[in-house]
Fold this protein.
Amino acid sequence: MRLLIAEDEPDLLRTLAQAMREQGHAVDEAADGPQALYKASEWDYDAIVLDVMLPGMNGFEVLSKLRLMKKTPVLMLTALTKVGDRIQGLDSGADDYLAKPVDLDELAARVRAVTRRAQGDSSAIIRMGDVEIDTSARRATKSGEPVPLTGAEYPLLEYLARRRKKIVTRTDLYDHLYDENDTPLSNIIDVQISNLRKKLGAEFITTHRGQGYSIEK
Ligand code: CA
């Protein structure tokens, strides 16, 4: 999944972005309100982590302007002591909030939860025939046996699995699996699809010529 993290404290921004990359997400960064709003309107992120106190335009303003355009899941970062901030955040259309200081495991879990809700999935487990993925543990099994996947293969599999029975275009995959600083090779998706087929079965992913890929199970 591709996330936007908007936070003006450089050290915290770096820490949050690093933690989310370790969870296999592509991460774009914004250091002020206008930049956050620009990027959020320009790209269809899977989720946005939005600090309340941002220079230029605060998080509430960014959120209310964004909500006029799209429904991207937004998780707000608020000061622990400010109950009013949390209420205002939820009232202005945030999907969840997290108090600072941020617990990185909790942030990862809440990001998973808001994106799962946005996809209409209630469970962390997705079953597709004899293949099952656990989106919390980020693991896959086939007929109950663990299938080792690389850090690039898992996010691709989860992205297709969350949209199973729908065709996902290559453009969509590049937009959601790579961040603004990545320059992926033009055939990298094909290579990873081929690797996933070797591990999960040749029929597991369907190619729709000129359109994209789907999991039909
Ligand atoms: Ca701040």
The helical segments are 10-22, 33-42, 59-67, 83-91, 104-119, 153-162, 170-177, 188-200.
